[in-house]
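User: Hi! I have a protein structure encoded as tokens and I'd like to know what sequence might fold into it. I'm fairly new to this, so please keep things simple.
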């Protein structure tokens, strides 16, 4: 069962963000908001409703991506912010999202208590995902545009070379595990996705992505073999 079920309240996203703040790594090390109260959780939920209502009421095209979107498909993904794929023009029509950083492909900001990471469609791959890899998640209050399994895998594959260059081992492990879990549950065809990513990374990086995908394929094959192998009898129970 996934965390984000259809026709639940969109405030569920606030509960996910609150839990990440309370139980996440930064909170355990005294750096985060480990003392967030139920009032904080309620505020996060209200701000989630407010932001997605704003996007709906202004007819803004966007796509929910990142850790929250993954919860539509897989269990237990921890995240402290909301990731949106959006155009710069749309972003400029949303002054309520206060930007703290921006470059040609990414921006970061906040909407009241929400941290918001923004992937800009000025990046050609992000634009492709927004146009061709979108679905709808139905919450009680409203429908939310969300990336498909294939769209999320595309974004993870595209991000991995930069993470390797930065030596960000923790995020590398998380992103590769995200891809593995999506592939294990939904078995999408990866080769066409690799071909979509190919023009957007260096040839050497693309070769490394192939190696990563090959390793994921091998892990999936091991999982499949393990499921098909009957358990051995416990010799301690035999007379």
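Assistant: Happy to help. Inverse folding works backwards from shape to sequence: for each of the 239 positions I chose a residue that suits the local structure. Here it is:
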């Amino acid at each position: 069962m996934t965390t984000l079920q259809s026709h639940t309240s969109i405030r569920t996203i606030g509960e996910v963000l609150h839990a990440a703040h309370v139980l996440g790594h930064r909170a355990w090390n005294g750096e985060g908001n480990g003392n967030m109260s139920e009032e904080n959780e309620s505020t996060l939920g209200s701000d989630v409703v407010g932001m997605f209502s704003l996007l709906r009421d202004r007819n803004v095209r966007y796509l929910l991506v990142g850790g929250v979107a993954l919860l539509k498909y897989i269990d237990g993904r921890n995240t402290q912010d909301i990731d949106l794929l959006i155009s710069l023009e749309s972003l400029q029509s949303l002054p309520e999202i206060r930007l703290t950083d921006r470059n040609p492909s990414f921006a970061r900001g906040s909407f009241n208590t929400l941290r918001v990471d923004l992937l800009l469609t000025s990046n050609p791959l992000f634009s492709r995902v927004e146009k061709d890899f979108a679905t709808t998640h139905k919450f009680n209050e409203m429908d939310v545009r969300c990336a498909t399994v294939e769209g999320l895998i595309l974004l993870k594959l595209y991000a991995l070379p930069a993470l390797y260059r930065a030596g960000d081992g923790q995020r590398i492990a998380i992103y590769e595990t995200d891809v593995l879990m999506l592939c294990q549950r939904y078995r999408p065809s990866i080769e066409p996705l690799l071909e979509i990513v190919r023009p957007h990374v260096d040839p050497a990086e693309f070769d490394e992505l192939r190696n990563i995908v090959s390793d994921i394929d091998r892990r999936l094959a091991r999982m499949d073999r393990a499921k098909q192998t009957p358990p051995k009898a416990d010799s301690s129970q035999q007379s």
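A useful reference point when you look it over: The chain has ten helices and seven strands. Feel free to ask if any position seems puzzling.
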